[in-house]
């Protein structure tokens, strides 16, 4: 596909591929990864997010104790 685009593109920015090219291209089949695969790769980010949430909760509790109501 890229080779055909490189050889047949015009300077006008319009590119139309011939039917023969599309017949050569195999259909795209995507299989989504399962949740375990995704979560295992996001574990560091999720851990940092949990730490930030805990720090924010602790800061909110500490600040709430410091507030004086008149």
SSE diagram, text form:
Elements: H1 2-8, H2 19-24, H3 35-41, H4 43-66
Oligomeric grouping of the chains: single chain
Number of strands: 0
Number of helices: 4
Structural class: mainly alpha
The main sheet comes to:
none
List the uncertain runs. none
The H/E string reads HHHH
Any overview of this molecule?
- By secondary structure, this protein is mainly α.
- The protein has one domain.
- Helix content is 63%, strand content 0%.
- It is built from 4 helices and no strands.
- The protein has helices at residues 2-8, 19-24, 35-41, 43-66.
- The longest helix has 24 residues, at 43-66.
- The chain is elongated and about 80 Å long.
- The N and C termini lie far apart (73 Å).
Gist?
The protein is mainly α and 70 residues long.
Kindly list the characteristics that best describe this protein.
single chain; 70 residues; mainly alpha; 0% strand
């Amino acid at each position: 596909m890229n080779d055909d685009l490189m050889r047949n593109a015009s300077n006008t920015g319009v590119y139309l591929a011939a039917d023969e090219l599309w017949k050569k291209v195999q259909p795209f089949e995507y299989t989504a990864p399962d949740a375990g695969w995704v979560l295992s790769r996001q574990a560091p980010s999720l851990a940092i997010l949990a730490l930030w949430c805990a720090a924010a909760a602790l800061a909110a509790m500490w600040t709430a104790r410091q507030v004086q109501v008149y």
